[in-house]
Amino acid sequence: MEPLYQYIILFGMLIATAGLAWMLYLIKHSLGDTIDEPGKDMPTQSGHPSPEPAWNRYHVHYYGFALLFLAFDMEMAYMYPWAVVYKELGLVALLDMGVFLAILFLGLIYTWTQSGLKRQ
Amino acid sequence: MSTILTWIAIGLLFAAGVYFVALLEQWSLQGYFDWAAPFNAFLRSFGQEEIRTRRYDTVFYEATPVIFIAVVLLAVAILPFARETVILDLGTAALFINAALVYIMVSLIMAGWSANGVYGMIGGWRAMAQLIAYSMAVVMAITAAVMRAESMAMTPIIQSQASLWNIFYQPVGFLLFYGAVMAIAFLPPFDLPTAEGELAGGAWAEFTGARKTLFRLGRLLLILTLSLAVTIFFLGGWLGPWLPGFVWTFIKTTLVAASFFWVGRYFPRIRHDHLLEWGWKYAVPAALFNILQVGIVLLL
């Protein structure tokens, strides 16, 4: 199958999904409208009305992990092409990637020793 | 002609699979099977009034359910049901499935953010924490499978398991992938983004009616798709004697899906900081060990 044709199918699937959603919404719309009642549009907060918007600054307790994740995610981008040719290249490939991974792994261990691997 | 019949059979089996997963989901909550429950749940969810919060983000609110279900369908499209029976035989399938499934997290964050509710927002941030915790396990386990197959396409990955399934070839990778896949689908021990009884539905708390129905349908599809992925990467896909390939695929897929719910019943919900800690302290070294082990065995 031609590559371009494949991506046209993928794009068509996206459109079809959006169409399915739209069809569901149309059916739903034809069944009747929402009755406007006071307090109905409040976000859930255990029965209390929530006066403030939720779009506030939020302390993500896992930013240390997020930084580590970035480093490892970059590494994964190199890992896939490496994995495909691994068997062909043999021991050289293992050593090449081994050095790279060892350095990254040292980084992980360093973060661990600096107690970065816990809720901040 | 026979290919068309095969596709019709696959379509019917897939729909039956979605029904089965819905049945299992209900069983995991109530402990007994109610054969009409999926239909009742659909009607209840779809018939619900469409309520929106006061100040919501229109673009995110409308886009999330569609994104959620669309990425799952894109992931299904590249997974083969049998030899030559795949919607798209993509050369970079192993990478594509990662890229597609990350959007589950994006959709959950958008859902949490868009409704402008506190519980939803926390659910969204937790979805991101969960991604950071499980993502390495998924990616590295797939890498090891790719190393063995010498290709990122799905067909060679399955054919490489003809002599020995990957579950025996790299058991560590299987355990990591299995757990991580449950985290992707936020199934019970990892149901942090939508934690019932803690966040009152979390990221999906403010969604009602048709949009909630799309989310729930998408989740059922997601669970089935991930079971299919486990089958393909670790349980030899269509490989099996006597029966046609796609029947084997579906037998394995349904068993994996059932095992998800069965396992989930025996674990309490994990705290998100524990999940992150364990993910990086134990799962990442284990995944690297798995790659090393597969690498050494391949060279022998």
From TrEMBL, chain A:
Q: What is its main location?
A: membrane
Chain segments annotated as transmembrane: 6-27, 62-83, 89-112
Location of the protein in the cell:
Cell membrane; Membrane
Q: Does the keyword Transport apply?
A: yes
Any one Pfam family here would be Oxidored_q4
Enzyme Commission code: 7.1.1.-
The record, for InterPro entries, names: NADH_UbQ/plastoQ_OxRdtase_su3 (IPR000440), NDAH_ubi_oxred_su3_sf (IPR038430)
Q: How does it sit in the membrane?
A: Multi-pass membrane protein
Give the keywords, sorted.
Membrane, NAD, Quinone, Transmembrane, Transmembrane helix, Transport
Supply the enzyme class, top level: translocase
Q: Which reaction does it catalyse?
A: a quinone + NADH + 5 H(+)(in) = a quinol + NAD(+) + 4 H(+)(out)
Q: Which family does it belong to?
A: Belongs to the complex I subunit 3 family.
Q: What does this protein do?
A: NDH-1 shuttles electrons from NADH, via FMN and iron-sulfur (Fe-S) centers, to quinones in the respiratory chain.
What's the protein called, per UniProt?
A: NADH-quinone oxidoreductase subunit
Q: Which organism is it from?
A: Fodinibius salsisoli
Kindly list the organism's lineage.
Answer: Bacteria, Pseudomonadati, Balneolota, Balneolia, Balneolales
